[in-house]
Amino acid sequence: ICCGNFLPIFDKEFLIWNITNQVDWIDASLNKWIERHPSTCFVFNGGPNDHLAKFYGSNTDYYLKGNYIQDELFSFKGLKIYAMPWLPPHAYELEPNAFKTKDNSLYIAAVDSIPDETDVLVTWHHCYINKNCRDVSDQGDIYLKKRVQSLKNLKIHAFGQPVEDNVILHSSRHLVVSSNRSRVGIYTTVQI
Question: Which pTM does this prediction carry?
């Protein structure tokens, strides 16, 4: 599972240039990496850099030799995996940010859309609060936290947002995994 930011940024101001170059980069680099692992099921979620994924949504699969999931449920070996790339408007100063919502109501609608039957939740943003955190962008989102707590079948919450080393994330009910801690080649992934 790649929790987001699987595509490089080519230009911070001319976003269409990112989309064009990201298509070429998928073909030249990412798909070649995927092909080296033929028996692996790859699942991708969007992150702040992934302008192509926001532009094409679920049709990103046309370019990608993996499974791009955006606001939908994907079943694999009995696990129901749901990916939600959206970020609240207050998250990150990182610009341009492909999945940052313009107003809170859009973000709340995306969080509310996470199905109750989700076993594995894949997001970019996390929802684990740490009062000792020095950077407010490392703080999790309380609305997402409430939704995660309500998911009775949830076994794993995998997210891509980098967090400080001293931030300890935990849950008593499900496994919490930050993909920025587990690198496979140049990609940050979670293997289950």
Answer: 0.84
